Amino acid sequence: MRNTNRYLLTLSLLLMIVFIIGKVVFVYYNQSIYDATGSAIWSIISNGLLLDLRTTALLLLIPTIVTILMRRGIKWILVPYLCLIAIAVGAIIVADMVMYEFWEFKLGAVHLAYAASPEGTTNSVSVTFLVTRGLLILAFILLFAIPSIRFTPRRMNARKRWFMPIIIVIVAFVPIGVGNCYHSGPLFLSHAATNPAYRFAVSFFDTKKYSDDKTKDEDRTAVTKAYETSSDITETLLTTQRPNVLFVMMESFGGKFVEELGGIPGVAPNLSRLIPDGIFFDRYYSNSFRTDRGTVCAYSGWISYPNISPMKQVEMHTQLSSLSTSFRNIGYKTGYMYAGKMTNMGKYRYLADMGFEALMDDSYFKKVELNTGWGANDSTAAMKMYHTIAEIDTTARWMMVWQTISSHEPWDVPYHRLEDKKLNAFAYTDQCVGDLVDSLRTLPVWDKLLVIIIPDHGFLYEQTYDNSEFFHSPMLWTGGAVKGKRRIHTLMNQSDIAATLLAQMGEQHNDYPWSRNILSPDYKPFVYCNYPSGMLYKDETGETMYDLTAQRALPIGEAVDSTRLQKGLQILHYSYTSLHP
How far does Cα 88 stand from its chain's mean position? Predict the structure, then answer.
């Protein structure tokens, strides 16, 4: 027999202990990202205490109600509930710290979309990794489950004690001062202080929060005008309006690995060799942080969203235009090569719906050629791409995409030039791309070939998302169809490729509302980028980074340009209202 106050107080303390231990483990697990001192750990715990209390109160509402209404049979009701809480909290705490190591933002609903394609996880990490993290989840489950179950009585004291029930209800439903756990220091400290269970739960409401009608008619008009450009061009970049086009989309190859963009020297010598002979866009920014988002931005000219993947949202596909369809309408054949499985994040369905005719996945390769966990490595795929192009009738018009695969976890490549395993994998992809371009020069198709080299997104190598350089990326146009060697310094987004390329080909881009022809006389230079917990707006006046979780500008303590912030938020909200016109 237990006293109501004592029982609820014990459950509260157990949950708080679990949350605090989870924070400490989170910090030590991710110390490669931020090496927190003892005082920093204490500040994380203290800053997150109120939100931990609120989360605890919300989770204990059902035990509170049961102990108030019932005297007998309590154990039969509460033990299953407490086990569910233990499983959910344990899984969320561990998943949050593990995923943060890879993505550096808090666990949220967006992760579930990627969890639905498990090959993306199993190809990136080892079985040992998965087993050890599973054991860590079990440890957190038992940490709460065993003592809470043992302390749960069969009967409650007949005399009801109302102190703890009243406190729990107040903390759960009166948010005054509760939830303000955002640290004034580095962003990592705010993330570490934020209760993972609470953040995971509220993330399911982010879409509604962003899609609420928060823009006035004049703001909508401003956003629409900002994205309007004509198909007129100030410069002709190509020798022909009907080039054959090969896109090379390099996995994760952000500007961090390109010396010409201020990146690490020596990682991409082949890009450095090719840049002087082509058209290099040195203020090009990827829209988003993952392949599924970047693919849609590049080939559908669509905007990116913090927590929605248009590739995964099949119902959106009818709204999307695509370069494949635009090229097919003027007599081109189209194809897409990815030397792995196209099931991840619904890629095959998206590409098919976008009108790509030849979809070449791992089934296009011999079994002996599938030499990595992801599929065929980049040298094998580059050779296959070369032979595929060489066999095409020289009179045919075509547009092809080759998406590379090797500059990705687990970084195992048949190449050993650099000691750093990650940098070496990027160097390997650079070598394969350079070899492919050199091989294509020997073909008759070269004279009318445009090769567009871009990444799908950047990679967090000694960077964080709140650094705009994560999105800063290389884009190089090379090939015999390129009219002259030059650099273009215009600010542009990945989503602007479609309109810019079509304008160079003398075609309209009216079907691409989020794509701008950057060589149009009426182009307004700015970039808009995002990831699940942040947004970047950059124009010629400067840049503004905004933390969507904490709802504050970054870096903390610096003056905020209200005009840039307003423009970024206008685009954010308007982009959601345009999801279902």
Answer: 24
The predicted-structure confidence for 510-542, as pLDDT tens digits, reads as follows: 999 999 999 999 999 999 999 988 999 999 999
State the pTM of this model. 0.86
Cα gap 354→300, rounded to integer Å: 8
| C-alpha angle 345-346-349 in degrees, rounded to nearest 5 | 165
- Regarding whether 418 and 363 lie in a shared domain, the answer is yes
CATH code of the domain in which 341 resides: 3.40.720.10
- Which residues in the chain show pLDDT less than 70? 1-2, 71, 113-125, 156-161, 175-185, 206-217, 556-557, 580-581
| CA 479 vs CA 77, 381, 430: distances in Å | 70, 20, 17
**Residue 442: burial class (beta carbons within 10 Å; 0-12, 13-18, 19+):** exposed
Contact in structure between 492 and 283 (CB atoms under 8 Å): yes
pLDDT for 99? 87
Give the H/E segment covering residue 361.
Answer: none
| Tokens at 91, concatenated | 């899984």
Given this model, what pLDDT does residue 167 score? 82
Task: Identify the DSSP state of 464.
Answer: -
> Radius of gyration of the chain from Cα atoms?
27
Tell me what pLDDT residue 190 has.
Answer: 81
Residue 28: CB atoms within 10 Å: 12
Element holding 332 (H helix, E strand): none
The token duo for 386 is 């070369």
Q: 126 and 263, same structural domain?
A: no
**Could you tell me if residue 213 is inside a domain?**
no
Distance CA(455)–CA(84), nearest Å, equals 42
Containing structural domain, residue 30 = 4-208
pLDDT in tens, 426-438: 999 999 999 999 9
Whether 292 and 457 have beta carbons less than 8 Å apart is answered as no
- To which residue do tokens 């909200």 refer? 573
Dmax (CA) for the chain in angstroms is: 92
Q: Are 362 and 386 in contact (CB under 8 A)?
A: no
The answer on 46 and 83 residing in a single domain is yes
Residues 6+ apart with CB under 8 A from 205: none
Residue 121's pLDDT is 53
| Alpha carbon separation from 216 to 126, 174, 225, 513, 574 (Å, rounded) | 50, 31, 14, 19, 10
CA distance 98 to 125: 11
Q: Is 559 left (phi over 0), alpha (psi -120 to 50) or beta?
A: beta
Pick from 4, 361, 16: which is nearest to 164 by CA? 4
Identify any residues that bridge with 487 across adjacent strands, giving them in sequence order. Answer: 280
CA distance 305 to 327: 26
515 close to 498: Cβ distance less than 8 angstroms = yes
How many domains does the chain contain in total? Answer: 2
Residue in 24, 40, 18, 29 with CA at minimum distance from that of residue 86:
18
